[in-house]
Amino acid sequence: MDKIYLDHNATTPIAPEVLELVTDVLQNQVGNPSSVHSAGRSARVLVDEAREQVASLIGASPSEIVFTSGGTEANNFALLGVALGLGKTHGHIVTSQVEHPSILNPCLQLETLGFEVDRLKVDSLGRMDGLEDSLKESTLLVSLQHANSETGVLQDIAGAGEIVRKRGILFHTDAVQSVGKISLQAQDMPVDMLSISAHKLNGPKGVGALYLKKGSPDLFAPICGGGQEKKRRGGTENVAGIVGFGKACELARLSFHEMDKISSLRDHFLQLVSSQITGVEVFGDLENRLPNTLNIGFEGVEGDTLLIGLDMAGVAVSTGSACSSGTGLPSPVLTAMGIPTDKINSSIRFSLGKSNTIAEIERAVEILVRTVSTNRKGIHAERVIKS
């Protein structure tokens, strides 16, 4: 039986059109985009066209797009670029407790260099609070995620950005999980920087971008090399990856209508789970969230055990962020939301994608019911399934 993939927040399958184009570029485009001969100029045209496609998806100008190796580098570029470019050796940064490790870990590094970092708390639904009170005269940058990868909760970036803008502070948002899933226009958002990753929207791994709003100050370049990306990011461009990224952005821009289908599948999945399994709890704000994400706790079942059982039955899910897996610690996101450890340890993230069908969703629920029934501790099997 075919596998059922419900872990699209970790990574997405590459779109066939993207794969075809990437393969063609790898096979037939030998030039370095910095070379002046015809092969180099041909590669440069491809990079420039992809830059336009990425910019078009988020309503930006091509000149505002800086290609990186992915979302992690884009986030590091924003944080280190501002701190080391403007702060030099000190300054204040505001972020939150529920950010991706590619934000939290650079902040830890900056603290060792003498920078001060405040991490906003969240409420029980994963919503941030206290931004205005956290700002100081020395604040250089505020970096807040747009969508959480574990819960799908969307933050009020517009409201936060207005608060930050009034103080003349730079504002960055990690939009890796939201770009391609919901429509957004960077130029209409009160942000100076925005991170994107290709493999979260059916593009290739190893490529992403940082949107840098026109008029933003020059940032320290963490990767120094040649004059690529207008001297903002050194290194020969990953032409095939960038071209695939551009194509994936074009496809995403033309298929936002599919998100309604995914949202309906997500809701159908939750309705089936809630009606057939006892002891179910959904974590995170159910009103303001991505259309594809559910984080669900199952009373009396270890999440890792459930994950393995589902995987053996052909269903791929996650117990949280793929970049945080293997730590052996409870999810820092759910911990920050005040969820008890036993509930955290029972949680599973289900993240749907464009390839999922209603038949897959219903089959996944059948497998989930059986797996919970088999593995639930201290509860008789007859009590697992609702009558």
Q: How would you describe this structure to a colleague?
A:
The protein is α/β, with parallel strands linked by helices. It has two domains: 137 residues, Aspartate Aminotransferase, domain 1, CATH 3.90.1150.10; 238 residues, Aspartate Aminotransferase, domain 2, CATH 3.40.640. It is built from 13 helices and twelve strands. The strands form three sheets. A seven-stranded mixed beta sheet has the order 2-8-7-6-5-3-4, sandwiched between helices. β3, α4 and β4 form a beta-alpha-beta unit. α1 packs antiparallel against α8 and α10 crosses α13. The radius of gyration is 22 Å and the shape is globular. The relative contact order is 0.17. The model has no long low-confidence stretch (mean pLDDT 94).
Number of domains: 2
**Poorly predicted parts:** none
Fourth-level CATH superfamily of the largest domain: Type I PLP-dependent aspartate aminotransferase-like (Major domain)
Main-sheet strand order equals 2-8-7-6-5-3-4
Radius of gyration: 22 Å
Percent of residues in helices comes to 25-40%
**Second rung of CATH, namely the architecture of the largest domain:** 3-Layer(aba) Sandwich
Q: Number of helical runs?
A: 13
Number of strands: 12
Averaged pLDDT: 94
Query: How does the helix and strand content classify structurally?
Result: alpha/beta
Major β-sheet, in short?
7 strands, mixed
The name of the CATH topology of the largest domain is: Aspartate Aminotransferase, domain 2
**Percent of residues in beta strands?**
5-15%
CATH class category label of the largest domain = Alpha Beta
Q: How far apart are the first and last residues' alpha carbons, in Å?
A: 28 Å
Shape: globular
